[in-house]
Amino acid sequence: MTILTPVKARDWAIFALQAQLLQFNALNVAQKQGGLNADFQQKVNSINLDADKWLDIQEDIKDAVVFLDKVVRRLETIRGHLDDMLSTAFKARNGDTHSAWTYPIKFDVSFRGLIATAEDQGGNPNLLGSAQHRSFTYKSNDIGETETVSRSFLGSDYYITDSTGKIWTRDRSSFLLRQRDATTGAKTGEFAALTGGLRLDSLSGSAITFTTAPDTTDSTTYTGTLSTSGLDVLDAWLYGDLESSADRQRAEDDLHSAKNTVDLHLARLRGALATVRFYESQSNVKLSAFSDLIDDKTTAHLLELQ
Questions:
Q1: Can you tell me the distance from the alpha carbon of 234 to that of 214, in angstroms, rounded to the nearest whole number?
Q2: Is the dihedral of CA 192, 170, 155, 63 positive or negative?
């Protein structure tokens, strides 16, 4: 047949019928595909809705992993400072006139490092410092359940209430022991250097007698009550600058006790870190499952379209 060949009525009817059938089939397929696509998109949207919840939770969990890992590392650093102080107290047994003065200095440097680690290097909340921060809480799953890690003061501090009712507190920024008004906290003007400016005269239980600016014409002796908090370890002057065997033994006893306390809390916080890492792995599994589910739905949808 060419363009010059006459078109028969029968051939034209067949051609028209075929065109109508093709148009009908195309419309029918399009309608079915549209229904399949809508059903598929609804399923994907439902999966993505659940996945988005887990993405938010995973972000919260990842932040918790970073936070608790830092807390554990800080407490390990605190334990290291206790070991250094213990080593210094032990070495002081063999001190002589040339080296004895160096041991209280080394002891106090480690003690200040311990305090700084507990107080100054914490996040929010600070789980190791003296301030009354809240506990740390994070979401663990998509139904609103949470895990909480409590705080404990694992630094160390002390103050002395003297016989006049005034208090002596550590000034961490200047390394001084300052006398303050017990009610207002105002400085009285009396102070002494924590290293080299104080002498322990006696300590029995919490009853203390000490002298500021010893061996000078400005020396002053005070009596009072010693109060401690945290790990209950102290500056070297409160261990008699590690000069006598009794004072060194007292320092070693306090340090061993503090290490035991730190080890207990290390176990607790490492357990909390292991728990949050488990939740992190669970969130990864959940999100991977959502991704696999969408892949499966997509493959099944393509087969249905075919």
A1: 19
A2: negative
Please report how many Cα atoms fall inside a 13 Å half-sphere around the Cα of residue 299, on the Cβ side. Answer: 5
pTM of the model: 0.79
- Please provide the DSSP assignment of 188-240 as one string: EEEEEETTTSEEEEEEETTEEEEEESTTSTT-EEEEEEEEEEET----GGGGG
Distance CA 19, CA 31 (A): 18
DSSP state of 53: H
What ranges in 92-123 are assigned the alpha helix state H?
102-119
- Tell me whether the omega of the peptide bond preceding residue 125 falls within 30 degrees of 0, making it cis: yes
Closest to 280 measured CA to CA, from 72, 70, 55: 55
Residue of 80, 78, 106 whose CA lies nearest to 92: 106
Q: Which tens digits make up the pLDDT trace of 49-104?
A: 555 666 778 888 899 999 999 999 999 999 999 999 999 999 998 877 667 889 99
pLDDT digits (tens, 9 = 90+) for 263-306: 999 999 999 999 999 888 777 666 565 455 555 455 554 455 45
Side chain identity, residue 75: L
Instruction: Give a three-class secondary structure readout of 284-304.
Output: HHHHHHHHHHHHHHHHHHHHH
Alpha-carbon distance of 163 to 232, in angstroms, equals 22
Enumerate the β-bridge partners of residue 273: none
Distance of CA 306 to the CA centre of its chain: 54
Angstrom CA distances, 67 to 61, 116, 281, stand at 10, 18, 17
CB neighbours of 64 closer than 8 A, spacing ≥ 6?
A: 136, 138, 147, 276, 279
Q: Which run of H or E residues covers position 76?
A: helix 9-91
